[in-house]
Amino acid sequence: MDLQTSTPWEQRHAPPHPVETGSYLSRRTLLRIPGQPFRHPCRITDCSVAGYRAVILSPRPDAGRHFSTGQEVELEHADGWRRMVGVRWVNGNVLGLEILNPVTRIIIPRENGEPEPHDCDLLGVHGELFRVTIPDEPSLCDQFSLELPNGETLQVRVRWAMQGEICLQPVRPNWRL
Length: 177
Prior knowledge:
Layout: H1 8-13, E1 29-32, E2 39-47, E3 51-56, E4 72-77, E5 82-91, E6 94-99, E7 104-109, E8 115-126, E9 129-133, E10 144-147, E11 153-162, E12 165-170
Antiparallel strand pairs: 1-2, 1-4, 2-3, 3-6, 4-5, 5-6, 7-8, 7-10, 8-9, 9-12, 10-11, 11-12
């Protein structure tokens, strides 16, 4: 669902997007409403390719009253990165945040070792498989990096490919039993 074209009723009643546990983000995250000086400290509890689930760090159970569904807010991390996100749903002091203007890249190493980034479109995530489409056809090597919209970078390899669409699988080390 697109926050710009959907109605507020659709945004309120849309099911929350699935999230994956294991967020690498720390507690040093802030939410800022554009035009307001106050920043709301929060903790990201879950993240997925499409967004985040954040808990506002406030003793009040209605801390999410400052945020409304469809509103654009700035997610700011103490390390210096900032990203505009849209509020997808609000439940007390828990927010579902959707990444706005997501960028997905495939980073292929050149022969001289320098990284060569290629922008691509993320079509879908199926378990640990990522379906992407690439406008230009790069020469793919055995292993390369996939940079997801949530900032996560994975080492991947091609599972299958067909006209302009490839399926990528994360590279896992072979564990001996």
